[in-house]
Design brief:
Blueprint lengths: L4 E6 L9 H9 L1 E8 L11 H20 L4 E5 L2 H12 L3 E5 L6 H13 L3 E5 L21 H10 L16 H5 L23 H6 L4 H15 L18 H5 L5 H8 L5 H26 L25 H10 L5 H13 L4 H14 L4 H11 L7 H10 L14 H8 L4 H6 L13 H20 L6
Helix pairs in contact: 3-4, 5-11, 13-14, 14-16, 15-16
């Protein structure tokens, strides 16, 4: 009898190590590994431009890794409910495996599971991309957590996350074993994920190497050399952060791998910072927990009383000009402009500066957080579907566990505290540049923001009948 074939459907898990769906499929028999570019299905958020650049190179690296194991990465484009059953039929698969996702796209997976099982296929999903799945961490009343600290405490009380799984020793291709036809695959170039007219990705190429091997090297370097300085993580001019976020976003490395590497052998200085770093990994888990329970996180206020906030219209002047200045890093506020230029050049921005730039847009320009969230979604290589909107809502005050909603980051004070020698600013703003004057008065715009937030306070206090 021929070896049974399993179709492994990859999504945000572009790795061969610690990939339970792939490993279990290789133990079952022959394997077809597929990646589907789905820009059409409801519940799937199409990738932004910087993420599409990363995806191209990540898939290139993944295809090589799969080929080294004896397999082949099949590329398809289209709706999952059409293409996955079609590919299963073409390959003669008797089983379909995937690693679970936790956004609105989980409804696609649930429907597919029912449909494929109705056709007589075995369908199995696995835990791979979160250490603590949302339905496993709830309050005593069975509700989702809305505050991070008790959430993270509850996660840690569930026990140590499992050890990372090994990569498979080999992948048996059904075409190789049976002599059957190869399966049709799109070419990666046909997807046109890379920018060409113009090619704006030069800075991304200089800064990043996508792929599983680079992710593993980045983690090792961080644990061995950088974690010792993690207590300086808020200083954008100092290299003290992990830079793992895009690798985690695309699943080139798993949180299980990160957890156990950082919990492993470390020098004393690094060990003292490990708990704080792992709590940041926990913040990522918290954001996914929020998205799982509130799928509209990128488009709707988590706190509905913020629906009353009097945002300015970014399509009208002077707000249109102010928004353009923010995007291009020409607001006349050095720390804001340095951050926005770093973003455009590298597809990345230091986390402290992300908070400052977001606060400036929301609270000094009074432009809706959704406008900024969409810009980051398009320009960040680590535009995570949960963390990007959750963090924007955190700054806005409309999200879960948000800072006091009336907090306004003062970019001048933030510069003095975290970049006093202007190391970071001078990296992105040349000293000989004819620099613009500030587009807003920080003190006056802060007062306007506080007045606008009073509208939210009033809306929150109103009786339900008056709402």
């Amino acid at each position: 009898m021929s070896t049974p074939t399993t179709l492994v459907w990859l999504r945000n898990d572009l790795r061969v190590a610690d990939n339970p769906a792939l490993l279990e499929a290789t133990r079952r028999g022959a394997v077809v590994v597929a990646y589907l570019l789905d820009d059409e299905s409801e519940g799937v958020r199409p990738l932004g431009a910087a993420s599409r650049w990363w995806l191209h190179h990540s898939l290139t690296a993944l295809a090589l890794s799969i080929a080294e194991l004896g397999g082949r990465l099949v590329l398809r484009r289209g709706r999952a409910d059409t293409e996955i059953p079609r590919l299963a039929k073409e390959t003669g698969a008797s089983a379909v495996y995937w690693n679970r996702r936790y956004s609105g796209a989980r409804d696609i997976d649930a429907a597919l599971k029912v449909a494929l099982r109705g056709e007589g296929l075995e369908v199995t999903s696995f835990q791979a991309n979160l250490m603590f799945e949302p339905w496993t961490v709830t309050t005593g009343e069975g509700n989702p957590y809305r505050v991070f600290t008790p959430f993270w405490k509850a996660c840690q009380e569930t026990g140590e996350p499992r050890q990372p799984l090994p990569a498979p020793d080999a992948i048996i291709s059904p075409a190789t074993e049976t002599g059957g036809p190869s399966f049709a695959s799109d070419t990666l170039d046909s997807w046109a994920l890379l920018p060409t007219a113009p090619d704006w990705a030069g800075g991304l190429r200089e800064r990043w190497i996508p792929g599983e091997a680079s992710a593993a090297e980045t983690l090792d370097t961080f644990a061995a050399e950088v974690l010792t300085d993690y207590h300086r993580r808020d200083e954008p001019g100092h290299e003290a952060t992990s830079h793992l976020s895009p690798h985690l976003s695309f699943g080139e490395i798993s949180p299980f791998q990160v957890w156990h590497r950082v919990r492993g052998d470390l020098d004393p200085g690094a060990r003292s910072n490990a708990a704080k770093f792992l709590s940041e990994v926990g913040w990522r888990e918290f954001n996914w927990n929020i998205l799982y329970n509130f799928p509209a996180l990128a488009t709707a206020n988590y706190r509905p009383d913020f629906d009353a906030f009097p945002w300015e219209n970014p399509d009208e002047e002077p707000h249109r000009t102010e928004l353009a200045a923010w995007k291009s890093g020409n607001t006349g506020i050095p720390l804001v402009d340095a951050g926005m230029r770093e973003l455009w050049q590298t597809g990345y921005m230091h986390n402290r500066v992300r908070m400052v730039t977001a606060s400036f847009l929301i609270k000094n320009l009074l432009i809706d957080w959704r406008v900024g969230e969409q810009w980051f979604w398009d320009t960040l290589v680590d535009a995570d579907e949960a963390s990007n909107p959750a963090n924007w809502q955190w700054v806005a005050g409309s999200g879960a566990d948000a800072a006091p909603y009336f907090r306004v980051f003062n970019p001048v004070l933030q510069e003095k505290k975290f970049d006093p020698r202007r190391t970071y600013i001078s990296r992105w703003i040349p000293s000989d540049e004819l620099y613009p004057q500030p587009i807003v008065d920080l003190a006056a715009s802060r007062k306007e923001a506080l007045a606008a937030y009073d509208v939210v306070k009033y809306a929150a206090r109103r009786p339900e009948a008056d709402a």
